[in-house]
Amino acid sequence: MSTTEHAEPAPRRRRGRPGHDQSAILRAAVELFNRRGYDATSMGDLAKELGLTKPAIYHHVTSKEQLLGQALDDALDELTSVVTEASREQPGAGAYQRLREVVRRSVEVLVAHQPSVTLLLRVRGNSEIELAALERRRWLDDRLAALVADAVAEGALRDDVPPALVSRLLFGMVNSLVEWYRPDGAYDQAMVADAITSIAFDGLARHEA
Question: What does the record give as the DNA-binding region (predicted)?
């Protein structure tokens, strides 16, 4: 090739049918996994749901497992950030205040990521991806239990319920939203967050004799 000739530009990667980018494919996959079950859903099922060919989907993702991993990360990443922040000591904010804030913000995270959280709560450890997600859930339980223990040590919470049990009950209340909460329903996110936080901590707060 002479110095006056130019190499042809590399072909641009096809983006697939408009409206079906990677995020749209992920949303459709999560909806289908929740409706049919992850193990019972194939990439062919997803292609049919989207009106695409399987090769078109593989322009954006490599496998069904990748979609599952992305969905579980979507459910866990923000909640992990919320719990991590609350676990750090903060000037003017004791463990009890940070614990209340975790519960409130957990409601916000669940509402914002409800389909992915629903999928997370259904995994049973049938693959390495699911086992890793379950390990992250255990980490969250442990951090929340430690925060409960700190609030007990402050004298803000009753001390006759094991912190690990309190952690499970708190997350259980929040996670129950996946079964009934609808963004267009009778209760908005703020009302639900207030109700769960109030009910949880009015029941846990120490009452002087």
Answer: 42-61
User: Structurally, what CATH architecture does the domain formed by 69-204 represent?
Assistant: Orthogonal Bundle (1.10)
Give the DSSP per-residue string, 124-178: -S-SHHHHHHHHHHHHHHHHHHHHHHHHHHTTSB-SSS-HHHHHHHHHHHHHTHH
The pLDDT-based confidence of 6 (bands split at 50, 70, 90) is: very low
> In sequence order, what are the beta bridge partners of 205?
157
pTM of the predicted model, to two decimals? 0.82
Of the candidates 6, 8, 4, 52, the one whose C-alpha atom is nearest the C-alpha of residue 28 is 52
**Domain locations along the chain:** 16-62, 69-204
Which CATH number is associated with domain 16-62?
Answer: 1.10.10.60
